[in-house]
Each structure stands twice: as C-alpha cells, then as structure tokens.
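[Q] Does anyone have a clean structure-token version of this?
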Amino acid sequence: MTKQPQSKIKIHLASARLYLVTDQELSENRDTLKTVEQALKGGVDIVQLREYSLTDSELLAIAKEVRRLT
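[A] Here you go.
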C-alpha cells in the first residue's frame, strides 16, 4: 500500500507554529482587523475567524479584509 501525498493544507497545518483564533467578545471587543494585522506581523502562521456575534454580512466584510492581509 503506497502512502498518498499530503494536501497543501495538511502540510501547512502540520508546519504551523502559531495559530490565531479571533473572537471579539473574548478579546474585550478589540478590533479584529487590527488584531489580525498585529498577529501576522508577530509571526502568526494561520488565522481562523470565529466571530459568532457578528451578522453574516459583517463577518463576510471582515473575512475579505483578513484575506487581503493574508
């Protein structure tokens, strides 16, 4: 049985050292975009948006900006 090559995502996840999960409520309502930008400058490898308190349209707007930053 031959081993299948790992997907790019699995390789990236396996090599990640610092993983940011956002949540405005838990971060005392700090600005998510500023937090992500600072975290990326600090060496974050992966960003996960977890903003349950936002509407779909608010989340999509932030997601687009985070994608631009990454």
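[Q] Thanks! Anything notable?
[A] The chain is about 45% helix and 10% strand.
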